[in-house]
Write a structure and sequence with these properties.
- This protein is an all-alpha fold.
- The protein has one domain.
- Helices cover about 80% and strands about 0% of the residues.
- Helix 2 runs antiparallel to helix 8 and helix 4 runs antiparallel to helix 11.
- The longest helix has about 30 residues.
- The protein starts with a helix and ends with a helix.
C-alpha cells in the first residue's frame, strides 16, 4: 500500500510541476502587455468560479475545520501569497529557466527547515548536500558577476515562503479538503491583485489575452490542487524529488515561447541543485530503513 501511495504521489507531483510551469509560461507571456497585478487579478477571477464549482460538487462547501486546521490554512495561504508575488515579479524580469532553477532548491530548503524548526534528524551528509545545493543556487544567481539580476533575490525569497507553505501543508489533518485550501489561496491572491492593481494603468484585454489567461487559470487550479494532494500522498522523501521534473518543462517552454536558452552557468548550478537534492532524499530513505530495522 505504501509503495502504491508513493507512486501515486510521484505522479501527482510530476503533473503538479507541469501545471505550475505552464502557468508560469502563460503569465510571463501576459506580462509583455499587461501589468503584473492586473494579470494576477484577472487570472484569479477566472480561477475562483471553477474552484467553487468543484468544491460544491465534492460537497466540501460546508466542511467544518478545527481551530488548529484554520491556523495552518491561514499560514499556508499567507505563505502562498508572498511566494506568488515574489516569484511572478522575478518571472516578469528574468528568463523562465533561471527562475525555475532557483526554485529547485526548495526540497533542500524544506529539509533544512524541518531540521531547524521541527527537530527532524539530518546528518552531516545531508547538511553537506544542502550547502553544495545552495552553492548551485549562488551560481545561478551569480551575485557580483555579469548577468546578476536583483530579481533573482526575489525568487530566492519566494523559496523561503514556499518552504513555509510545504511545512504547513504537511501539518494539515486529512479532514481538510484540498479544494478548500486551493480556494482560500486563490481568493487571497486575487484580493491582493485587486488591492495593488490601481498602482498601474488598466490595459485593455484582447481575445488572445483572455485565451492565455484561461490556460493559466486551468493550470494554476491543477497546481493548487495537486500541490496539496502530493504532499499528503506517500512519503515526502519519495515524492519530493519529482519536483525536479519542473526543470524539463521550464527549459522546454522557455525555448519554445521566449527563445530563452539557459547558459552554461545556469545549467551547472541547476545540475548541482538537482543532484544534491536527490542525494539528500536518498540519504533520508537510508535513515528511515535503518530506523525501521533497529526498532
Amino acid at each position: 500500500m505504501r509503495f502504491n501511495e508513493n507512486i501515486l504521489g510521484a505522479m501527482i507531483m510530476s503533473v503538479c510541476m507541469m501545471a505550475y510551469v505552464v502557468n508560469d509560461g502563460m503569465m510571463k507571456f501576459l506580462f509583455v502587455d499587461i501589468p503584473l497585478f492586473q494579470a494576477i487579478f484577472l487570472r484569479g477571477i477566472l480561477t475562483i468560479a471553477p474552484l467553487i464549482m468543484i468544491m460544491w460538487y465534492k460537497g466540501a462547501i460546508f466542511t467544518r475545520l478545527t481551530g488548529r486546521d484554520w491556523r495552518f490554512v491561514a499560514m499556508r495561504v499567507g505563505a502562498e501569497v508572498g511566494a506568488t508575488i515574489l516569484f511572478l515579479t522575478a518571472l516578469k524580469n528574468m528568463p523562465l529557466a533561471n527562475v525555475s532553477a532557483i526554485l529547485q532548491a526548495l526540497p533542500l530548503a524544506v529539509t533544512m527547515a524541518a531540521a531547524l524548526f521541527l527537530g527532524a534528524p539530518v546528518g552531516w551528509r545531508r547538511w553537506t548536500a544542502i550547502l553544495v545545493g545552495f552553492s548551485g543556487v549562488m551560481i545561478v544567481i551569480r551575485p557580483g558577476l555579469e548577468g546578476f539580476s536583483v530579481y533573482s533575490l526575489y525568487a530566492l525569497c519566494a523559496v523561503g515562503f514556499i518552504t513555509l507553505r510545504e511545512l504547513t501543508t504537511h501539518k494539515l489533518s486529512r479532514e481538510v479538503p484540498s479544494i478548500t485550501v486551493a480556494l482560500a489561496t486563490s481568493v487571497a491572491i486575487t484580493i491582493v491583485g485587486a488591492v495593488m492593481m490601481p498602482d498601474a494603468p488598466w490595459v485593455p484585454v484582447s481575445g488572445q489575452h483572455w485565451l492565455v489567461l484561461g490556460i493559466a487559470s486551468c493550470a494554476i487550479i491543477c497546481g493548487y490542487l495537486f500541490s496539496v494532494m502530493a504532499m499528503r500522498t506517500g512519503e515526502i522523501s519519495f515524492v519530493a524529488p519529482f519536483r525536479y521534473t519542473a526543470m524539463v518543462w521550464a527549459i522546454s517552454l522557455g525555448i519554445f515561447l521566449f527563445g530563452e536558452w539557459p547558459d552554461k552557468l545556469t545549467m551547472l548550478g541547476t545540475a548541482m541543485i538537482i543532484l544534491t537534492g536527490i542525494y539528500s532524499f536518498h540519504r533520508e530513505q537510508i535513515r528511515q530503513r535503518t530506523e525501521a530495522v533497529n526498532q
